[in-house]
Every structure is written in C-alpha cells, then in structure tokens.
Design goal:
Blueprint lengths: L14 E5 L5 E5 L5 E4 L2 E4 L11 E3 L5 E5 L3 H7 L10 H10 L7 E5 L5 H10 L4 E5 L3 H14 L5 E4 L12 E6 L8 H7 E11 L2 H14 L2 E7 L6 E2 L6 E2 L9 E7 L4
Parallel strand pairs: 7-8, 7-10, 8-9, 10-11
Antiparallel strand pairs: 1-2, 1-6, 3-4, 5-6, 11-15, 12-15, 13-14
The structure holds S-adenosylmethionine.
S-adenosylmethionine (SAM) binds next to helix 3.
Length: 265
C-alpha cells in the first residue's frame, strides 16, 4: 500500500488523489463496487479502476477532476490521524537534508507523536536503514504505528514506548531528531547514541526554549556548530493574470536547532 504504487494504472485497492481544484482534493482508496461521494456528486470506483494516473474523471453532476498518485505529503495532509502537532513539509525537508540522511542510515527520533516526521525519516533511509523512535505516550505509539502502517513504512521504524531521557539503547547512529517540549532532558542520551560528528536536529516552538537549549548545548561541551533557523513559506494563488501571494499563511511553526557531536578533549 501507501505511496509505493509504481504502476501507472489504478487497480482495485489503489490509493488515488482526486483533485478538483486547489481546495477540493481527496485521497481515497478505490475499491471495486464502491463509490466516492462529495458535495459535487458521486463517481463509481469502477469508472476509475483501469485508468492511468493523470486521467480526467467526471462526477454525476458533470463536475470534472483529475486523478493523481498521492505523494507522502498528500497522505499526511489528508489521511493521517493527527493527535499531536506535526512537522510541516517545509521544516521536514530542511531537517532531512541537514541531517544528511540517505538510504541505509540509522536515525534516532525522540517524540514520535502522530508519526509524520517518522514517515519523512523512514522514507529517506529505507529500505536498508532504520528509524528508532522513542515515545512516552502509549496512545501516541498506537496512532503513529497505524499511520506508518498505512504508508507501508512501519517496517522501517522501531517504536519504543519509553522516555528517552531515561536512556537510549542504540549506539553509533548516523543522526538524531528531537521534537519534544523539554529537549535539554535528552541531550545526554542523544549524545551517547550518536556517532562522532553526526548531526542532531531539535524542533521547538518558542524563543525561550531555543535560548535554554542553545545554552545547554554550549555548556555541555560535546556539541559544536550550533545553528538556529526558522523557515517561512508563502504560498501563491495561481489564477490567469492574477498570480499573487495568498492572503493567509501559516505564520509560525517552530525553530530548528542543529548541532554536531564533537569529541570531548
Ligand atoms: C509534538 S509531538 C511530536 C510530533 C512528531 N514530530 C510528528 O511529526 O508527528 C511530541 C511527542 O513527544 C512525546 N514526548 C515528550 N517527551 C518525551 C520523551 N522524553 N521521550 C519520548 N517521547 C516524548 C510526546 O508524548 C509527544 O507525543
């Protein structure tokens, strides 16, 4: 399942993004004999099965839409169960690049939440790599596991229902990502788990937390190259002769702190 449908044709059980316009978009799983209903009418899945992705479809009302293969972001936006704040794609992409992730790597994650960032991490290190995700809340472990399973990524993520501040089992990991409210509590276990020179990324929503974390990293003595970044994303409305910035935007998601493990001399 999930995003790994490499066939060009929609088959029974395929996931499909139905896109009518920039707002009316749905990710659905097509099933023989089933039907998709929305405020613009309905379409029987049997009319979609056998079509190529990219085809135009027509609803009972005459409204037209196109069918596409959903990306990871489409799944996270429209199918994921969200029980926590999740990492936005703009931040996730920047984090993945700055952690230097590639296929085969082993990564630590603290705070799996709904599993959105775990999905991006797993997608980057699969098939040979692994994500080791620590999560204190058992309800979040269940939600994240279900979401990852849906995407076909659960096999690349080892979720541990534990407080990472009490210790991390893994050693010689290639990178770490932390998304919890009190990241200074896990700085020591993260340090112990990483290979020298590996990068750790921390996502935090307030300036006060950034100040506290950065001071903690400096005082720790085992971290160098400490950087703080905030990313702003502005979408555009795209209409003929009227391409302009959208009136509304997400004003703030969080700050990202990066640091590299250095040897204590
Ligand atoms: C904001 S959510 C993470 C969201 C996640 N990054 C995503 O994209 O879906 C933070 C999670 O960290 C967990 N958490 C907080 N402190 C923790 C700790 N010390 N060890 C493990 N998990 C922790 C919380 O239970 C919560 O589920």
């Amino acid at each position: 399942m999930g995003v790994d449908n490499s066939s060009n044709l929609v088959v029974d059980g395929s996931w499909v993004l139905i896109a009518m316009d920039s707002r009316k978009r749905w990710v659905v799983r097509v099933r023989k004999g089933g039907r998709f209903v929305c405020d613009r009418g309905y379409i029987d899945f049997d009319e979609i099965i056998g079509l190529e992705y990219g085809s135009r479809i027509r609803f009972s009302s005459g409204a037209e839409a196109y069918i596409y293969r959903p990306t990871l972001i489409d799944f996270i936006d429209r199918v994921f169960t969200r029980r926590s704040q999740i990492i936005y794609p703009k931040d996730a992409a920047y984090i993945v690049v700055n952690l230097g992730l590639r296929s085969g790597m082993r990564v630590l994650e603290v705070g799996v939440g709904s599993g959105a960032m775990a999905s991006y991490l797993a997608n980057a290190v699969m098939p040979g790599g692994r994500v080791y995700s620590y999560e204190v809340r058992d309800d979040m472990v269940s939600v994240a596991s279900r979401n990852l399973e849906l995407l076909g990524l659960l096999e690349y993520v080892v979720i541990k229902n534990r407080d990472a501040a009490e210790g991390v089992d893994e050693r010689d990991l290639d990178a770490a990502f932390v998304d919890i409210g009190d990241p200074w509590r896990v700085v020591d276990p993260v340090y112990e788990a990483l290979k020298p020179a590996s990068v750790a990324g921390f996502f935090i929503p307030t300036v006060n937390q950034v100040d506290r974390l950065v001071r903690f990293l400096w005082d720790h003595g085992g971290w160098g190259d400490v950087r703080v970044v905030e990313l702003l994303e502005r979408g555009y409305d795209v209409r003929e002769n009227a391409i302009r910035p959208s009136t509304r935007m997400v004003g703030h998601t969080g700050y990202i702190v990066f640091a590299r493990k250095r040897l204590r001399m």
